[in-house]
Amino acid sequence: MSIHILGIFGSLRQESSNQGLVKLAQKLAPADVTFTLYDKIGSLPFYNEDLEDSSRTPTSIIEWRNLVESADALFIAAPEYNFGPSAVLKNAIDWATRPMGQHALSGKIISLISSSGGTGGAHMIEQLGGILALLGNTVISEPNGQIPKGAARISANGSTSDPAIEALVGDRVQALVDTYKSLGK
User: Fold this and answer.
1) Residues 25, 94: Cα–Cα separation, whole Å
2) 3-state secondary structure of 10
3) What are the tens digits of pLDDT across the range 138-181?
4) Do 153 and 168 meet the contact criterion of CB atoms below 8 Å apart?
5) Going by C-beta distance under 8 Å and a sequence separation of 6 or more, which residues neighbour residue 176?
6) CATH 3.40.50.360 fits 3-182, yes or no
7) CA-CA distance, 27 to 7, in Å (whole number)?
8) pTM of the predicted model, to two decimals?
9) Which residue intervals of 71-121 are DSSP H helices?
10) Contact at 8 Å (CB) between 91 and 46?
């Protein structure tokens, strides 16, 4: 039983530790997992309902929705900004949830993890986890995905000298796989 995971990082910083978490997850994914890294989140225009007309929908949005639709699970790593998710990540989620009733972001298994400040993104994980669950997704909550001050412990290329971070990311990827199998998908 193969699973397709889409990895997304909700930061535009070139040296983002959240980008590093997604790249580490990609490296740690089991051999039978297809792990696609989406690194174009910054190319998505601000959500605008006027662009919902199929003749006006930008190519970047069509590509994004197709990637989300084809994935069985999402591995999302994002910083916390002002006690919530980054605007760029929220924008991507808004695009993936349109058109209403037939959107690409429903029925997915999602892991949220954060490398952010002193709380490790606790508020972002709580808020975004609630939103994603309301949209009809299964959100992985264990093990805890908060990594306080992770920027000092993981690089943008996914390397880390902290075995706890590597174990956490590996456990989170395995939780996606195990949940997928337990749901009989």
Assistant:
1) 24
2) coil
3) 999 888 899 998 888 999 999 999 999 999 999 999 999 999 99
4) no
5) 3, 5, 73, 75, 109, 111, 140
6) yes
7) 11
8) 0.96
9) 87-96
10) yes
